[in-house]
Amino acid sequence: xxxxxxxxxxxxxxxxxxxxxxxxxxxxxxxxxxxxxxxxxxxxxxxxxxxxxxxxxxxxxxxxxxxxxxxxxxxxxxxxxxxxxxxxxxxxxxxxxxxxxxxxxxxxxxxxxxxxxxxxxxxxxxxxxxxxxxxxxxxxxxxxxxxxxxxxxxxxxxxxxxxxxxxxxxxxxxxxxxxxxxxxxxxxxxxxxxxxxxxxxxxxxxxxxxxxxxxxxxxxxxxxxxxxxxxxxxxxxxxxxxxxxxxxxxxxxxxxxxxxxxxxxxxxxxxxxxxxxxxxxxxxxxxxxxxxxxxxxxxxxxxxxxxxxxxxxxxxxxxxxxxxxxxxxxxxxxxxxxxxxxxxxxxxxxxxxxxxxxxxxxxxxxxxxxxxxxxxxxxxxxxxxxxxxxxxxxxxxxxxxxxxxxxxxxxxxxxxxxxxxxxxxxxxxxxxxxxxxxxxxxxxxxxxxxxxxxxxxxxxxxxxxxxxxxxxxxxxxxxxxxxxxxxxxxxxxxxxxxxxxxxxxxxxxxxxxxxxxxxxxxxxxxxxxxxxxxxxxxxxxxxxxxxxxxxxxxxxxxxxxxxxxxxxxxxxxxxxxxxxxxxxxxxxxxxxxxxxxxxxxxxxxxxxxxxxxxxxxxxxxxxxxxxxxxxxxxxxxxxxxxxxxxxxxxxxxxxxxxxxxxxxxxxxxxxxxxxxxxxxxxxxxxxxxxxxxxxxxxxxxxxxxxxxxxxxxxxxxxxxxxxxxxxxxxxxxxxxxxxxxxxxxxxxxxxxxxxx
Length: 756
Fold this sequence. Notes:
This protein has 756 residues and is α+β, with helices and mostly antiparallel strands. It has helices spanning 8-43, 48-86, 91-127, 130-164, 173-184, 216-225, 237-241, 275-296, 298-346, 361-403, 422-428, 447-467, 512-552, 558-589, 601-613, 644-661, 696-699, 717-728, and strands at 188-192, 198-203, 227-232, 246-253, 265-272, 407-411, 417-420, 472-479, 489-498, 504-510, 597-599, 629-632, 640-642, 670-677, 682-689, 731-739, 742-753.
């Protein structure tokens, strides 16, 4: 089931629709009953029996409908009172409108009812008057007398005509009857036997097989009275109206002489009554009958009329009240709908609002409000879409900034840090995100860099309008060392520009590796040329000195001979030293590319340290001194990708530098370590000594060729280490070991990627 809440405006519209259907059905039933009531009331004058027959049912139906309408009105009144007590919007307006419409319907209805009541009472009494009753009796008597005269006249004429047939036999009676019919102006003439058999006929009866015969009583009365007249058709208004009202006369035709075998005959003459006379007689008769009936039941008739009028009043009043409520609701419903919609919009609900389909101004207002709400919803959707796009763009921009190798810092006019990307923290090795709001030149370790950047921005803001500059660019040298972190000299190239809102954008990149590589490349080129230019004349110098010693051997005195020998030996030793120096230059310049293969670093270090474990060894790679070296190898170290020959040279160089640094120290100790960092998937090689450490100016350039603290050193040891590390993609860190605030030696670390 759907458990979502229904909007108040939608619920209001549904309730209003249900109420309209209920009221519409009720109004239809009420109108139907009212029409039936008025129809029966209209027919009451002409068809009182129909009215009386249906009056009981109509009364019950009207009472039931009036009771239902009264209950509906009471229910609506209770709802209005409840809404009024709860202070719902539009309740007071609805009560006022209902009261106005109810008064408009009830007051005229009461006035009309009073007038109609008096009119009906007086009208019914005025119907029954002595003169009217006398006139009806006189008219009825007149009609009866006229009909009796016509019947008696026809009976006399028929008796006289019967005398003409006394001598006429039955066989010749038909011809005489035609003459008799003309004399009597009758429609039909029939001669009957005493037993009721047709002897002869003239007129319409000739075409009938079985003419209507007189009754036995009529035949008996004719024999006794000699003649008889009967008026037929007046008791049946339908037949009389159709022209079937007639006067029938019967006369006895006696035989001329007495005899046992001769029986009397009966002459029957039928004459139609005039239509006007018949109609008037029937009208007077019906009017008198109805008058008498109503005179007897006039009190009941008055009660029926008054009751019908009262029920009509109840229906009209209740209908007027209900109509007042409906019309009031029709006027208040759009306002309630708008109020509910306004509350929903104020609460942030911009869902489609229900509208009224009416063509009036209020219906148009609801449609305009719904259209406005839809426009607001569309505008909010557009804003949300734009905000989503802006958020996505911001996320994309932040992702780009987070993954940039360059550092990006946003400053205000005074140099306060507004934001920074991880690249800036990585390059400067300072958590700039935690320093937001601080001045750049107040961040520990970045004082000189921040001051220089601020100066560059000030100069740029001064000169940009004059020279049309859109940015400035400058390189900086700084030491990014922090307490407990390796010493690291940085060469930065920075670029600055102005942003909207007077913010300042600082973008910089670490070009130390590039500068170092350029220096290494330059020194390699110098070493190659020096090795080429210097090595060539060294051999002739050595050979010339030895040849000179051979030519002068035995030709000089002892003192001069000793001087010559010493001088030649000095020349030869210095030439050998020069050759070794040139060979080191050559080896640095011609260091081959590394062939990376899986190498067990622990095994390689252990193998190299065998040379340092035997004192006085003659191995060419053995050190000239025996400062103890201690191993701390991590057994969990996986294999690394490296060139074993170059790595051996790296280990030799680092151990020799460490032993040289601790040669004159009070505590001579060199430690070589391996460590597996599972999180970073790197293997670290560390060499620590207990010497005096590196001076600040040497620490910044320790990996550059020919930078050394040893009197006899060439300064190529760490340069070779740096070059091999670059070939292996390893990171190299160099720092002084600080313990208790004092330098306790130096530490060199290399971090290698694992194989696979």
